[in-house]
Each structure stands twice: as C-alpha cells, then as structure tokens.
Amino acid sequence: MEGIAIDLSKIALKRSEPRIYGAGSVVPNPHWHMAPHFHSFHEIIVVRQGRYEVKSPGQTLSAKTGDVLFYRAGFVHEETSDVRSPVGIDFIAFDTGDPLPWLPLRTHDSHGRVRQTVRWLVDDVRTRRAPELQRLLFDVLLGELRLLCAVPPDPWMEGILSFLQKNLIRPLSLDDLAREGKMSKFAFVRKFRRRRGRTPMEELRLMRLDQARTLLLTTSLPVKAIAPAVGIGDEYQLSKLFRLHFELSPRDLRTRKTSAKPA
C-alpha cells in the first residue's frame, strides 16, 4: 500500500466518535523487543529516533526516524529495535469504528507535523486533559495523515531531510548540503526553498530545535547537555533560539510540563 496517492474527494469521512485507549512513549533501548502480538484496537506509531524492524505475516519492514506506522486492529506484528541505532517511539492506541482503509502500514512524515501532533496527544493523555480536547487534537492528527497520504512522495527531498536528521550534531555547511543534493549551492537553495518554503539552513535550525524540544519533554537531561546533543553550540544559544521560535525558554517549557501533571 506504500506510495499510493489518495484522492481525498473519494474518502467518506465517518463521524463516529474516536475512543483513545492510551498513549505513551518507548525510550531508546538497544534490547527492546516485542514478541508477535495483536490488539483489538488501532495503533499509530511515530518513530521519534533510531530504527527498528517490524515483522508481520508475509512481510518485514525497517522503520526509521520520521516514519509513521499504522497497525489496524487484529494486525499481527513483532518489533525489534536496531542495536546500533536504538529506536524511540511515540504511540496512540485508539478506535474509530472505521478500518481507515486509506491509511497505509507505513508513510513518512517529512514535514514533522504528524510527529508533533502525536507528541501533543501523548502529553495530553498523560496529563488527563479533557477528553473532548483530546478528540479535537486527534481529528487534527487524522487530517494531517490524510494530507500526508495524498501528497506524492518526493524522494529527493526525503533524502535531504533524512541526511539532515542523521547529522544534526555535525557543524553542517551549505556546501555539505549542496554536495549531498548533487548540485551547486545556488541551484540547491533555490530548489529546496521552492519545495519547503524556507532555506536549507533554516530547515536545519528548526529540526535541531524540534529535537531539543523533544529531549526537554521526554528526558531529564540538563539544557547544557541538550544543546550540543542537537548541534547547537551551548545552552545560551539554545535559549536564545528557543525564545525566538517558540516564545518561551527551555526551562519554561519544562515548567509548563511539570505544572500540567495531575496530582
């Protein structure tokens, strides 16, 4: 089913109320393994970092950072983390009364919008936010997935974005990116900006900030350790960029997360 373009005009949007059974995360662990199993509900899995192998009857696939997996109710699967690049995932368990035939087993979230929406949902479920607000956010998630499935894949762009994600910690230059794109700097920037609406270096900065935000929300690492771990010089530069793009400091983000926890 991968790579199939979806005609949105032919999708009947069912209005049955979704039921979210749970949400959570799996932290990177080279020894993480789930024996063959299935559920009576659907699952959406977002690969936050690393890689892992998914085996099901008749097929085996490798999922990497940015991939989104959809396990329909009754789908038998076995999961094993890559030892060299341990997987970290976020997941949502739910039921809609609809098999969601338009959603493939695997797609790639090249824009990061699905990953961010799932991240918000995981936080909302953990903090027991009002169910009606969770359902609104879940509708946004399905909308983002529909749009993602309707857009034909762009192998060139996905390759560049994958290269950026794998090399966040490196001091990448525009020359490095142009070489990866196999073209001159001028042509590379023009092509990238036309397809993404921003320059390659702006994209790299946003990816680093997004990874920093994920680490702030999912780990207890100090800010001074997170900054170099995502390729940003030091905690002062990270704080400056955080305020510029998110209008709050890294510590403010953690304070909000802590204050939102139920008693």
Please describe the structure with a list of short key phrases separated by commas or semicolons.
263 residues, alpha+beta, Jelly Rolls, Arc Repressor Mutant, subunit A, five-stranded antiparallel β-sheet, four-stranded antiparallel β-sheet, 9 helices, 21% strand, globular
Task: Estimate the strand proportion.
Answer: 15-25%
CATH superfamily of the largest domain: Regulatory protein AraC
Instruction: Specify the number of helices.
Output: 9
Class of the largest domain in CATH? Mainly Beta
Structural class: alpha+beta
Q: What series of H and E elements makes up the topology?
A: EEEEEEEEEHHHHHHHHH
Written overview of the protein:
With 263 residues, this protein is an alpha+beta fold. The chain folds into two domains: 8-150, Jelly Rolls (Sandwich); 155-259, Arc Repressor Mutant, subunit A (Orthogonal Bundle), CATH 1.10.10.60. The chain has nine helices and nine strands. The protein has helices spanning 113-126, 131-150, 155-166, 174-181, 185-196, 200-218, 223-229, 235-246, 250-259, and strands at 19-26, 33-37, 42-49, 51-56, 59-64, 67-71, 77-81, 88-95, 106-108. The strands form two sheets. The protein has a five-stranded antiparallel β-sheet, with helices on one face. The protein has a four-stranded antiparallel β-sheet with strand order 2-7-4-5, with no helix packed on it. Helix 1 (113-126) runs antiparallel to helix 2 (131-150), helix 4 (174-181) crosses helix 5 and helix 7 packs across helix 8 (235-246). It is globular and about 50 Å long. It starts with 18 loop residues before the first strand and ends with a helix. The model is unreliable at 1-15 and 259-263 (pLDDT under 50).
